[in-house]
Amino acid sequence: MPQPDPPPAVEAPLVYTSVLPPLVDDADLWAASQDGERFADRRDGAIYHLHPRMRLAIDLAIATGRPLLVRGEPGSGKSSLAHYVARNLHARRLEEVVTATTRVEDFLWRFDVVQRLADAQTRRGDAPLDDTKYVRPGVLWRAFDPDGEFGGKDEEDTVVLIDEIDKADPDVPNGLLVPLGSRTFTVRPLNKVITAPAGRRVLVVITTNEERQLPPAFLRRCVVARIPDPTKETLTTIARLHVYGPDGEEPSAADADLFTRLADRLIELRATSGQRERPPGIAEYLDAVKACRALDVDPAQASAAWAVIEEFTLRKPTGES
Amino acid sequence: MTRSEIWIGDLVRAVRVLRVTDDATRRQVADLLGFESTSSSPGLSRTDEEPNARPHPPSVADDVRAPAPSHAGTTTERSLARLPALRPLTATSGTAPAAPPVTAVELSGVTSMAPSTPPSLLDPLASRFIAKAMITSVRLGPEPDIDRIVGLLARLEAPDPLPLEHRHTLARGVQVLIDVNEGCEPFASDQADMVARIQRLAGPTLVEVHRFDEVPDTEDTFAPWSPPRPGATVLALTDFGLGGRGRRNRSRLVAGWQEAADLLGRRGSALVALVPYPSARWPPSLVGVVRMVAWDRPTTASAARIARAGPR
Question: Which of residues 63-82 of B touch A (CB under 8 A)?
């Protein structure tokens, strides 16, 4: 039984002059990528439901030249935010997904030892190999791009997404302080200093699922914004956006009812999820919406099929042993 | 040169560039930049309990103050500045009615008092770094250690085996052993705090917790201990039987710990321990077997790092 909505929190409107162009959804891109709605994780930035506070955070990051650290639960739209902003800015998009073995150098350059080994085995004569040929640019080198080798132009923005920094060892964020703060670093194998040109606008968006505490020194150098918890209104709006598109018609009565019921159920599960279950988020909600629509299952019927859909889409273990 | 932390200049620049004119938006701007605001949006405020909330932001009311530079003042001064009662008073707009003084009559109406939280065993400012030093392990490679190779070649010695770079990592995971024997009862909240801190540092998926009574025992009937995956650090939060009456005699307890350390050593795991007693009281026969650190205020991250590295 859906619970009555709590009164919405009254928030004062944010009054300022944005440095961003109007951030709009792209109906054509959305339509082109529908293909049976089999999109699990949009990375084209076509649509996004942007909270005004997150928009202010992006403005602040650009105005101050600081990295934007986006906090939030898994599936809350942290990475999608970067893609959405990049598309609206017509910016180059660069991305590095962090893992437990990611090192600071991986953001700056990599040495292609495999290629060098292959060349060493097939070379003829005694001429030594030129090690500088095996240095590959990392995501920040390509973003700063002082020589315009990688498509960087002064009048064009670049958005760098450093995804899930909390997966890295704690030393990695500290190691990024200098390259991100001063926009310069040295490629040791080449003894070459890479410095972003003065006119180059680089927005660095860093995401964290907060699985691991980040160093205080790193936090103090970022604009830190947390994606707000989903409300019933935001969930139904997001569902409508994803199913009907930015310029779509009003949802059918059945769909409107589905969006609302699933939003109620999700909020209920978020409130009751214990230590063994992770609170479901927007990604899980969209999965449930798509599953119910594709399989023609009505959550109101309390059927066995709905029970299975709920178990598989909305109930996620924490992953702890 | 590293760019400085966010400071008042960032705030001024943001307010100017974004042409912010109203107080509500100014507060949001200040909040996103890490300045503490006296009022924040409902449901959006950060707390110190959140893992990545900005640490110790300064207070801001209608006026805005910058975070103190990290190099300013002594550690004690910085610590005191974070105590709300010792923060300088902040001017507020309007004239607030003065609060009536608290009288003895009002205090006499208090029927119960919440138990005060005992101070933590470690210096709160250092505990994060001590915990990190204790659980970080060293991984070799994959990159060769060029400096050592050059040194060997310079001495006309063959680099065999090839020296690999040492990298500090938490990726191998941590097993935390919590001693629940009677003598550890006074330290139960410190144990819980340490587990929470380690989970924040390493991530909950990489932290395994096992409770034991006096000695981790693979053949314990109720809670058999299993060593973690090879290479993972094992951190014991234990008093080695110093504080309780103890079910086992001392020699059996020591033998049990030696057995556990041997087993872990064969699996490439280090056994480290935080002990809430001074080193003079540690069991001498375990000092070389378990890498122990005093769980006490004077302990520093550097001392923990040295103890964690073990004998050289």
Answer: 67, 70
Please check whether residue B44 touches A, CB under 8 A: yes
Task: Select from B4, B13, B20, B32 the residue whose CB has the most chain A CBs within 10 Å, as the one to mutate to test that interface.
Answer: B32
Contacts of A178 in chain B (CB under 8 A): 1-2
pLDDT average, residue stretch A287-291: 93
Task: Indicate the DSSP class of residue A69.
Answer: E
DSSP per residue, A109-172:
EEE-HHHHHHHHHH--SSPPP-GGGGEEE-HHHHHH-TTSTTS--TTS-EEEEEE-GGGS-THH
Contact present, A314 and A266 (Cβ < 8 Å) = yes
Spatial distance between the Cα atoms of B172 and B207, rounded to a whole number of angstroms: 10
On whether any CB of chain B is under 8 Å from the CB of A182, the answer is yes
Q: Does A321 touch chain B (CB under 8 A)?
A: yes
How many other C-beta atoms are found inside a 10 Å radius of the C-beta of residue A25? 19
Residues of B whose CB is below 8 A from A181: 2-4
Instruction: Please report residues of B whose CB lies closer than 8 A to that of A12.
Output: 22, 24-25
Q: Give the dihedral of Cα atoms A187, A155, B20, B66; nearest 10 deg.
A: 20
**Least confident segment among A122-126, A287-291, B74-78, B291-295:** B74-78
Neighbours of B119 (CB within 10 A): 10
d(CA A201, CA B290): 53
Here the ipTM equals: 0.79
State the greatest distance between any 2 C-alpha atoms of chain B, in Å, as a whole number: 86
Supply the pTM of this predicted model.
0.67
- Tell me the range of A166-180, A283-297, B74-88, B153-167 where mean pLDDT is highest: A283-297
